[in-house]
Amino acid sequence: FFGESMFSRVPDASKVALTYTVDRLRQSGFSLFDTQYLTPHLASLGGVEIPRLEYRRRLAEALSHTADFTAAPVPDAQSVLQRITQTS
Fold it and tell me: Rounded distance, CA 81 to CA 35, Å?
């Protein structure tokens, strides 16, 4: 999955949108989320920069699997929060 620039008119709305998107991608079978550029904001949310060769390897692996953004049921906010904060 490829993400582009995010903006919002409400403070922190882009963080909520990104959190929801990452959860949705995980639940739908995606294994790679390309944000194009690593910003301090994305790094604070767990984004990491990887070398081009590693990216291409991961992309080839991701493309060999089936993923469907619409396959998983749409979760409510509580379900997303529970999944991302669960430690056991």
Answer: 22
Say how many CA atoms lie within 13 Å of 80 toward its Cβ.
Answer: 17
Residues in the chain: 88
Between CA 84 and CA 80 the distance in angstroms is 6
Tell me how far apart the alpha carbons of residues 36 and 3 are, in angstroms, rounded to a whole number.
7
Separation between Cα atoms, residue 6 and residue 14, nearest integer Å: 6
Per-residue pLDDT tens digits for 50-85 = 999 999 999 999 999 998 888 777 778 888 878 777
Cα separation, 88 vs 85, in Å, equals 9
